[in-house]
Amino acid sequence: MSGSIPFYQKHHRHYDHGYRSRETESKLSQYQTSSRYTAGSSTSAISTSRGLKVSSHSGLEASRLSPVPKRAKPTYLAVDKENQIIGYVVPIFRGSQEFVTGFSNTEEARVRDTAAYMARRDLFTSGLEMERSEQISRRETMRESAERISLNKRIHEHGEHFKRMNEDSLMHAPEFVIKPRSHTVWEKQCVRLHCTVSGWPDPRVVWYKNNVAIDPIGNAGKYKLESRYSVHSLEINRCDFDDTAQYRVSAMNSKGELSAYASVVVKRFKGEIDESLPSPRHGPVSEYGINFQTHIVDKFGVSFGREGETMSLGCTVIIYPTLHLYQPEVQWYRDDVLLSPSKWNHMHWSGDRATLTLTHLNKEDEGLYTLRVTTKSGYETYSAYVFVKDADAEVERAPGAPLDVRCLDANKDYIIVTWKQPAVDGGDSILGYFVDRCEVGTTHWIQCNDTPVKFARFPVTGLVEGRSYLFRVRAINKSGMSRPSRVSEPVAAMDPSDRARMRGTSAPWTGQIIVTEEEPAEGVVPGRPLELQVTEATKNYVVLSWNPPGEKGLEGVMYYVEKCVSGTDSWQRVNTEIPVKSPRFALFDLAEGKSYSFRVRCCNSAGVGEPSDPTEAITVGDKLDIPSAPSKVVPTRNTDTSVVVSWVASSEAKELVGYYIEGSIEGSNVWEPCNNKPVKATRFICHGLMTGEKYVFRVRAVNAAGLSQFSPESEAVEVKAAIASPAPPYGITVLECVCDSMVLAWKQPSFIGGADITGYFVDYREVTDGVPGKWHEANIKAISDRAYRVSDLKENRKYQFQVRAANMAGVGIPSLPSNTFLCEEWTIAVPGPPHDLQVREVRNDSLVLLWKPPVYQGRDPVNGFYVDIKEADAPEEVWRGVNNKATEKTYIKIKNLKEGERFVFRVRAQNKAGVGECSDVTEPVPALTKPGTKEIVVDVNDDGIVSLNYEFCDLTPDSKFVWSKNYEEITDQSRLTIETKGNKSKAIFNTLGEEDIGIYSCLVTHTDGASSSYTLSEEELKRLLEVSHDHKFPIIPLKSELAVELLEKGKVRFWLQADKISANGKVDYIFNEKAVSQGEKYKMNFDKNTGVIEMIMESLTPADEGTFTFQLQDGKATNQSSLVLIGDVFKELQKESEFQKKEWVRKQGPHFIEYLGYEVTPECCVILKCKVGNMKKETSAHWYKDGREIKSDEHLGFTEGVLKLEIAQISKKDAGVYEVVLKDDRGKDTSTLNLTDQGFKDLMNEVFSFIANSSTPLKITSTDQGIRLYTFVSYYNDLLQVTWHYKDSAIAFSDRIKSGVVGEQLWLQITDPTEKDMGKYAIEFNDGKGGLRRTVELSGQAFDDAFAEFQRLKAAAIAERSRARVAGGLPDVVTIQEGKALNLTCNISGDPVPEVTWLKNDREITSDDHCILKFASGKFASFIITGVTTSDSGKYSILVKNKYGTESGDFTVSVFIPEEAGGKKK
């Protein structure tokens, strides 16, 4: 990306020749190297401005061309440290030439001097020094300019000499260095197309408009052609609508011809160019050195909304180059009127996307929306229409809301409100309109008129001067009132002169007007009002206007209005009570048809003035008539969803507001509005129509007086895309060449114009010495194939070709001339290139490629093809083969593609001599399944007819279904019949057979390649023939075959169920090949809704042994099912039937529904229970065990038809035979349960299973005797069998290893464990079914921890047993009489024998004669006091101690005196 100005806009005489061809540059470089003008070193200038880095770089390696240093091309792009463009820098100095390309050494000095001069001027402001510096700069500039001119002249002379000396080596065909660029401009603006062409000899350049050469002389002033230094331009002055065309520039010399194309689109404003759309600046911005390119993508389309909704319109804008700090001007227009941000319109620019949000749609928002993006280099626009429909009416059949409410002629107490009538009247004529007003700042709406007005204008009076108001309008018909219109802009009731004065102030608007007047002149009666006239007259009101009297300075003037019936002299004052302030007045309640004259008087505090001159007599009535109906409505095709409607304007239409267009599907008589906002043009595009339907249209005009009658209906027009001539074909290649003819091939145009291409026309011309001749027609009659042999050519001559495509709209423009081909006979041995490559059935991972074989076969016939593939963006080196073995077919299905990747393909043919030239490469194809893609579906109908069905929803009006077999179109319908209806097509096999095997495909034309295929292989053919046979000779399907079952009372039911059978189905019942019918023995039933067929017999007898058959028939469909009942099968069924009959009899009285059984609860309780039925109050139930009745107690229960007997803790004594007997007057029933032997064992095993499952995981604990393993169960039974295992072997118990049960704990005690006891232990619960085992690993850390705990507990136990103890014998309190002897003895234990110490009041005492202390045999300690005294009272303790511990025993001795005791008793 270069920031410099394109060189074709520089002063080329002073610009280097870097744009020459590479050959010219190389030769020139060699010549200059050898010349005496070999250059020295080159320099470049780097300048900085305001901290920004500005770099200058050269565009030509011209250091050898001049003895002076090379000049670099300037760039005015400012970059940051990361080389990102951030803005522009204005050059420090410009010379006399507008485009200076660089600085010489002298120029650098001049710049330095100039900088110094600027500094001196700032400091000293010396005029003399400034003038001297400027003279020096001018002289230096002139000298440098002369040097450059001289140098360029010498270079040019050397170049011309070198060209003459080496003319042949320098000659080459024209080449566009820069092609012309397309433009979109507004009407009456100028546009210039530029291009730069290289070539030798110098090419001759001709400009064409739509392939017609442009003659600037014949169109004087319109076109201007310029050609300077290989830069050619076409300027079109004051563009108009007819200048919209495709422009071609053709460059030709002796080496060839080349063309380039550009389009010019001229867009028209409403009327003249609006001032709000300023004329853009075209071309590059010279002062900044950059040319912006703007592209609008991701555009919004024609949009539809409804009143009250929110709509967003947006486009993505790409501006190149991208500048961080540069912002384009983004503007939105509606109907060519610039939009401003408001509460209705929100605009947003994100830097790359412009968005307009319509916050609350109203019909005023309908119109053509244009996005305009303006840059320094020009602008780009995009437009699309927005339609707004009426919101749903609040009252059914009520009219739509009026629109575009505006306020006109606002004065002190008077405003005219105007609006536009709605397009929808609800089906009934609109009776009139109501105008509402609301003061700004409030929400209270007041109706201004008591009766509806039909005129779309209404004068509102009685306003308060200085206040602002909003207005809205509602329409009414006989069904009801419409929704209110969008409110008007706020308007102030004030004098227009005051408003004009206030408009110039900058004070913010507050909604309150302050009225100021000049200093009044007191006591002066005002003069007459001036220029009284009737400005508006309808049958409802008349509006008068006048100018105030000419005198200034009068006190606030007000007015009285007077009227007079014509023919009389009686003037009557209209506003007798309150004079009006505004020079406007509306008179109501005038008699329609009468004539009146009016006059006005001024008044103030000084009095009432003279009347004005009266008006001419005015007859009350509508002066504005309803417009006449438009005529000649002509619809024309536009797109597949829109139609262009044009009409002749109303012949009598004053103050026309616009037109409303309505459309209706032909024959429906249901009219829908095409626009809800009047359009003034006589041409409108109606969008949102249904493709393929035929519509008729009508138009009516509207003005303030009302809506006209509808125009006559138009002719019906079918909605489909308009057709145009096709675009040019492209890719012309030669498929075969002989001595006098060539076979050409080309590709179909990318745009076919909306209609099938009917043929092609080929032109050729001879090229002699690089100069093309005139074009000649190769074929007069159009050819349908995209290959054609051009005959009557001359051998060894060169030719160019062009092709034009034609459709029903005409012949399109020709293609670009082909390459130049030599007409000489091909003699190569290998075949020529295949051609006409087509891609079908594109899916996410596959596609089908078709081609046509080469026209030139080579020395031998073609025997196969190779297909190559590569990614579209990959280099040529990565082509890879699809098939390793040549295929003889001209089609191939390519699989395993990467989803979303774009691929290109080519094909090569081979014969015995080898592989030939590659075909042209296809266009890039993305591997993506398009939304809505469907596949071919095979179907077999009821008659066995096989068909292939394909459906495509997005058909265009010209789409057709094309069926092919092996990708060759089916034209012979002897094997297949094609039927197409709507968007579905069907290929029906007439007689399906082996000759129909192949690939069937269906292509939908005029689409984006919709196609699908179906492969009919041998296996598929076999399957379809079987299905077809089943459909031809149908069998009634059965959900179930004939079966038998027993019903209540032992009845026997034979039945089957058909899967599908109609109401006309029949059934024959056969027994042993004889038909049976309805009777006492057989009861038949056939439910056709469910397909159930049954036959019921009361019972079976030996005579019923045999075969039963049901035969079904439904139309031509049949079926039958048989059931054989003989031998043991019949006997078992008969026996079961008799049993069921007895059972039924049993159940007539009290009976057991479920016989006696047992249930074990989680708490290991056993409950015997049975379920009974048909019980009543008198029914008794008795329980028995071993023949003895069990007395009723709390264990018996009967709830919800269930009898229960609970055994809480079962044991062997509970074994026995249990029986329950039910009986009443209807009979009795008995149920028995044997719980002896095996029955009891099974019961206990179930109990044991519950116990086992309740057990906790086996755990390890330690005691002072050893290690104990234990588990807990929720309930323990003495009959439970438990086995302990050690290392998977049962443990043999001994004195050291024991097991036991404590409560619900089961344990295993290992006394004095050793390391030999380490291992896996388990406890196994035996429940008769395999048992349950809980295990624990007593080893490793678990054993070490348990053993350590055992040692600790053992030591603690030993210490506890051996420590000193006071075993007993001492009382707590001893009460003794004085003088008595006290003898206490206690037991002492401990090993070793403890030491004994006696204490009194916590002090040690010793044995003496009074207190004798003894310790005998190490077990008995005695405490003896021979004669106690009161001094012996106190607390005594014995303390025993050995190495394992200490213990004490306390007692209290209380000594009393007998006398005291006796006194206390008394």
Describe this structure in words.
The strands form 26 sheets. Strands 49, 50, 51, 53, 54 and 55 form a six-stranded antiparallel β-sheet that branches. Strands 6-13-12-8-9 form a five-stranded mixed β-sheet, with no helix packed on it. It has a five-stranded mixed β-sheet with strand order 15-22-21-17-18, with no helix packed on it. The chain is mainly β. The chain is built from ten helices and 104 strands. Helix content is 11%, strand content 42%. Helix 2 runs antiparallel to helix 3. Strand 8 (204-209) and strand 9 form a beta hairpin. The longest helix has 39 residues, at 127-165. The N and C termini lie far apart (136 Å).
- Give start-end ranges of low-pLDDT stretches: 1-79, 81-126, 270-288, 504-519
Strand content: 35-45%
**Alpha carbon gyration radius:** 58 Å
What is the CA-CA span between the terminal residues? 136 Å
Number of helices: 10
Calculate the mean pLDDT score and round it: 82
Helix proportion of residues, in percent?
A: 10-25%
Structural class: mainly beta
Number of strands: 104
**Inertia-based shape:** extended
Q: Strand count, sense and closure of the main sheet? A: 6 strands, antiparallel
